[in-house]
């Protein structure tokens, strides 16, 4: 799987719902680096580990002046429960059920499991510069050590 956007491209405009009923847009993240990580589903083992790993490093990301945003197609209510259950400190957003940012980026795609084909989120992370340009892409992320790798990359560029 390759994303439809890569390093050097301008990250697309977006507006997504936040768990508190507000919205987050590309403009909200401008002016400093941002990490946007896409994950399949709240409260599943890999997604929980990833969100907890990013939460554990949030102070280091803040110190490096890097915003964090986790994105799935789960509802704002599910995000609220996910945050509360696991004491998450990272910001989360809900991508549109039909279409949305994940479709545009190519991370919402056809997947297969147990011989069945379905649409799903491919765990992917984007590091974006303060000017909105993509600095780095991690497609098909493996969770173990990922948050640390992203933090190291974010502090070097």
From TrEMBL:
Record's compositionally biased regions (Acidic residues): 7-18
Family annotation (SUPFAM superfamilies): Thioredoxin-like (SSF52833)
Entry EC no(s): 1.11.1.24
InterPro entries, A to Z: AhpC/TSA, Peroxiredoxin_AhpC-typ, Peroxiredoxin_BCP/PrxQ, Thioredoxin-like_sf, Thioredoxin_domain
The reaction(s) this protein catalyses: a hydroperoxide + [thioredoxin]-dithiol = an alcohol + [thioredoxin]-disulfide + H2O
Pfam families assigned: AhpC-TSA (PF00578)
Gene3D superfamilies with a match to the protein in the record: Glutaredoxin (3.40.30.10)
Region annotated Disordered, chain positions: 1-21
Protein's UniProt keywords contain Cell inner membrane: no
CDD domains: PRX_BCP (cd03017)
Enzyme class of the recorded protein, top EC level: oxidoreductase
Keywords of this entry: Antioxidant, Disulfide bond, Oxidoreductase, Peroxidase, Plasmid, Redox-active center
Domain of life of the source: Bacteria
Domain Thioredoxin: 5-157
Subunit structure and binding partners: Monomer.
Family note: Belongs to the peroxiredoxin family. BCP/PrxQ subfamily.
PANTHER family membership: AHPC_TSA FAMILY PROTEIN, THIOREDOXIN-DEPENDENT PEROXIDE REDUCTASE
Physiological role: Thiol-specific peroxidase that catalyzes the reduction of hydrogen peroxide and organic hydroperoxides to water and alcohols, respectively. Plays a role in cell protection against oxidative stress by detoxifying peroxides and as sensor of hydrogen peroxide-mediated signaling events.
Designated name of the protein: thioredoxin-dependent peroxiredoxin
Organism: Qipengyuania citrea
